[in-house]
Amino acid sequence: MSVKIKRIYEPFAKSDGFRILIDRLWPRGIKKEGTHIDKWMKDIAPSTQLRKWFDHDPEKWDEFRMKYHHELNESDAMKEMAAIINEQATATLLYGAKEEKYNHAIVLQELLKKHY
After folding, report:
1. Is the dihedral of CA 36, 14, 5, 80 positive or negative?
2. Rounded distance, CA 105 to CA 6, Å?
3. pLDDT tens digit at each of 116 positions of the chain
4. Per-domain boundaries in the chain
5. Nearest partner of 20 among 83, 76, 100, 101, judged by Cα
6. For residues 82 and 1, is the Cβ–Cβ distance under 8 A?
7. Is 94 helix (H, G, I), strand (E, B) or coil?
């Protein structure tokens, strides 16, 4: 099993495998047709409150990771995500954030690779 992450704005590639949008909100400027999204999992994204608090601030990164882990551990969406990941040879987690070093996709990818 391989779990990759990719901005939704990057071109589709067959090597992406099963493509999962992991944002609570639909990404700006992206049409739903032709996105090659296999599943949109809104509930796997950080809560609105956590997302707004974090605001991709590197100084809040460690605390954000801890809080997001806690949300994921309490989430039924994580069980659904794990089942999907275990069925796929390759899955790509798609996100819309401009920030590529400090975003929820990185945290989710780490958690999936560690536990599943």
Report:
1. positive
2. 8
3. 799 999 999 999 999 999 999 999 999 999 988 889 999 999 999 999 999 999 999 999 999 999 999 999 989 999 999 999 999 999 999 999 999 999 999 999 999 988 87
4. 2-115
5. 83
6. no
7. strand
